[in-house]
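lol so apparently i was supposed to do this last week
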Amino acid sequence: MPTVLAAGVAAHLFIGFWQARRGIDADRLRKLRKTLQIIFQDPYESLNPKHSVKEIVAEPLVVNRITHSRTDTHARVLKALEDAGLRPPEDFMARYPHELSGGQRQRVSIAGALVLEPDFLVADEPVSMLDVSLRTDILETLLELRDKRGLTYLFITHDLSLAWVLADRIGVMYLGKIVEEGPTRAVVKDPKHPYTKALISVVPIPDPDRKRQRILLKGERPDPGNIPRGCRFHPRCPVAFERCGWSSEEVLDDLREIALGADAAAQTIVAGARTEGPDGLLLPRGSEAWLQSAIDMKSETFRGLMAIASIDAVADGVRVGLHAFEEPSLRTVAPGVRAACHLVE
Ligand code: SF4
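anyway here it is w/ iron/sulfur cluster bound
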C-alpha cells in the first residue's frame, strides 16, 4: 500500500524532525502526538476492511487510553462522525468500509483524525482519490472544522489552484525541498522561483479572454534517489545559468544533442569527447572553434553550455573546465516570502 506508507512516513518524519529540533523527550512526544493527526490520501487503502466504522474511529481513543468507559468512547465516536459530516452518526457505527462510498470513507478517516481533538492536522492529498463531485463537499467540511475547532492544517496537494483557495501560506516543494514559501497571495500573484512560475503558468484561467504564457518544463522529474547537484531544479529550469550545478556529464549530453543535427566534423568531436570527473571534459584536439561557436549559438537552448568556464588546448586535446556552483538556500526575497534561487537572492 504505497500511498499509506508514504503518508505514514511523512508523519513519522515530521514528528521525528520536530523532536530533533525541539529536543522533546519521549513523554512529551507521546502527549504531543495526540495533538497532531493525519488524514491519509487514499480512503480505499487506509481503512481496515475488517473493522467497523466504530472500531476504526475509536482506535486512537483506546490506544492512547483517553476514555475509560464504553459510554464515553461511544459518545466521542458519535461526535467525531457527526463533525466529519456523517449524519446521523448512529447509522454509520456498525458499517464496514466496503459498505461506504469513497466520500463516506474519507469522512471516516477525518473522524478518526478528529476523535483525539487535535490542534494540527496533516491532510495528505485528502481529496485527490475522490470523484470530482465529492471534492467540494469534503473541502467544505475541512474548512468548517477549521473554524469550528480552531484547527491548523498542513495541506499537501499537487493541485495549486486548491492551495490557492484554501491556504494562508504556501510552501512549494521540488524533489523534497521547499523552494519557495510565503503568504498565498504574494506567492501566487508574484512568484519568485522559476518552478513556482512554471506551476502557476499552467493553472487554467476560467476566462477565455485572458491569456497567459504557459511555461512548459522540459524533461522528466529526476530520480529522488539521485538528486542533481547544485540547484536540484537546474536540469529543467528554463533560466538556469553558470552557477546552478551543471556536471560534465550534463554538458556532454548537451554537446551530443547539438552534434546530432550538425555535420560529420561535429559528430567526430563529440564521439571523441569524454568527461574528466564531474567538473571537466576533454575534447579532441582542434575542437576549440566548434565548441566556442556552439556556446555562442546554442547556450540559450542548451543551458548546460553556460557552465563552461574555460577552454584550454593541452597536449592530449582540449580541456574544458566548468564554473563553480552552489546549492541555493532559502532566503527572504520579499516581505514574508522566501525562495531558493540564485537569480533572486
Ligand atoms: S538556482 Fe534558480 S536559476 Fe538556477 S537552476 Fe535553480 S531555480 Fe533555476
